[in-house]
Amino acid sequence: MVEELLAFLARSLVNHPERVAVESREEDGTVTLSLEVAPEDLGKVIGRQGRIARAIRTVMKAAGARDGRKVVVEIKDQARERPQG
Amino acid sequence: MREEWTGETVEEAVARALHELGLPPERVEITVLEAPSEGLFGRGRKAAVVRVRPRPTFQEAAQQFMEGIVSYMAPEAEVHPPVPTERGWMLSVAGDGKGVLIGRRGKTLQALQYLVEMYAFHRSGEKEHVVVDVNDYRHRRREWVRKEALKAARMALRTGKPQRLEPMTAYERYVVHTTVQEVGGVRSASEGREPQRRVVIYPEGGGEGDDQPSRR
User: Fold this and answer.
1) C-alpha distances in Å from residue B39, one per residue of B7, B13, B34, B48
2) What is the tens place of the pLDDT at every residue in B80-126?
3) Is the CB of residue A5 less than 8 Å away from at least one CB of chain B?
């Protein structure tokens, strides 16, 4: 349920909803959701000074608490993960 | 309603769509479905295909997005159509029994409101304000903020010392300022940085000295 909500929020905010992907893994009652969007849409889910990302995390935490689960949202930045050279 | 148009160029296809829909460019959403290609020596030339849809209004987009969120977080709750206010729109949700959409001190509600505003702007292209309310929380909170403001103003008068309120949102601080204006002999100012920004109520003629009490 939480992964669907995150996908819904992200698809609503970006210009390329078809490129939104959410992966989830659960460990000791903590769900880690990894959000991937098109590189040019990163700003749409992060926002100025991270305001959008913060709002998304607050909402996701509330959604998780409803089912007694802790939710952590990671936003994948492919440019940074790509090895240099 | 027709959604797809073709033309030799994207611009031409869009112009046709706008003409037929009778809408200015800022009122539509345009998706290029197929870019035109020249082909070789005019052969195999492909037309541009665009999808043009009227944009929703700010309030339509806000309601739609909120309904989506509510269907995941509080399916039993109901989203009412936004109503116009002095400063924008009020979007109310009723029946969130557990207050999932509100959170501690309205933190979740504040985050939802921000996302709704971002989304509605993104979809409609209209920059407007929206206040999201759940189970009449805004009203209850406003009454509480008013009570706190009056209490602090009286305390400032009695003790002659500035009274600092707890951190509040911009709207709540506005409520404090207008409430304090109803009380004579005190004035209020905001200090600190978001999200820790708070109102301090000063007794007039005393307290801090760098700006003069505005009395004429």
Assistant:
1) 15, 18, 14, 13
2) 999 999 989 999 999 998 899 999 888 999 999 999 999 999 999 89
3) yes
